[in-house]
Amino acid sequence: MAATITQTDADVVVRTFFDALVSGSTDTAAGLLADDMWWANIGLPTIRGKRAVVKAIGSMNRSIRFDVDMHHLAVGAPADPSDPGAPTIVLTERTDYLGAGPFRCGFWVCGRLEVRDGLICGWQDYFSTADMARGAIRGLVGMVTGRGR
Q1: Predicted model pTM
Q2: What is the extent of the structural domain holding 89?
Q3: What is the pLDDT averaged over residues 123-140?
């Protein structure tokens, strides 16, 4: 039987995970992932398995800067309240920033993470490609004018 995870525990797991992504600590992020982890960005192929997700995160850390402004984080009930082993759902509303050199692109993201036994076992992000394009244009203008962050 899976250990019960409290809402506070799920909150801490998700916040620690995003802190690790921001700091570029692939090892810390990896330590918070379940072996059967999956990661889906809507419109892109789903990455399955901890090894593949860690490889993608490591690649991201090597090639781009990542930052995040967490606007809202809501911890919900288990995905299936009748199943004691069901993961707890954590919803995030945030602005993600991707950067390389002087370029920085910010865009809105809504994420759904599943936390089971203190580990993230699922992660799905939703974002608008139009908002991402606007963020890229703002990033290019900021880079050219020197007003980027």
Answers
A1: 0.87
A2: 7-95+107-126
A3: 90
